[in-house]
Amino acid sequence: MRLIYAGMALTFATLAFGDTITLKNGNVINGNYLGGTARTVRVEVGDNIQTLDVSDITRIEFGGTPVPLAAAPRQESPRRTQGLPVT
């Protein structure tokens, strides 16, 4: 019984953080973006891997929780010292 609950939790977790691909014909694919080339995109949908033409895609939305820019840690750029010897 615990295995069933663990499987259900894993399934819902992967669906919640999945990626959404909208095609030009109006179809929407929910899956995991696996990468691609300049002309194709690979998406894992359930147990299947689909290869889509980039020319057929309108939009790709990546799942997960994005970090707001205000909350992102700021990194200082390295400062240059001109005319001073390095010791």
Query: What is the average per-residue confidence, as pLDDT, rounded to a whole number?
Result: 75
Report the CATH C-level class of the domain at 2-61.
Mainly Beta
Percent range for helical residues? 10-25%
Report, as a whole number of angstroms, the end-to-end distance. Answer: 67 Å
Overall 3D form? elongated
Q: What amount of the residues lies in strands?
A: 35-45%
- How many DSSP E strands? 5
Q: How many helical stretches?
A: 1
Q: What value does the Rg take, in angstroms?
A: 21 Å
Per CATH, which architecture of the domain at 2-61?
A: Roll
| Main sheet characteristics | 5 strands, antiparallel
Low-confidence stretches: none
Strand order of the largest sheet: 4-3-2-1-5
Please state the structural category. alpha+beta
Order of helix and strand elements from N to C terminus: HEEEEE
The name CATH uses for the topology of the domain at 2-61 is SH3 type barrels
Topology:
Elements: H1 2-16, E1 19-23, E2 28-36, E3 40-45, E4 48-53, E5 57-61
Antiparallel strand pairs: 1-2, 1-5, 2-3, 3-4
Overview of this protein structure:
The chain has 1 helix and 5 strands. With 87 residues, the chain is α+β, with helices and mostly antiparallel strands. It has a domain at 2-61: SH3 type barrels, CATH 2.30.30. It has a 5-stranded antiparallel beta sheet, with no helix packed on it. β1 (19-23) and β2 form a beta hairpin. The longest helix has 15 residues, at 2-16. It is elongated, with a radius of gyration of 21 Å.
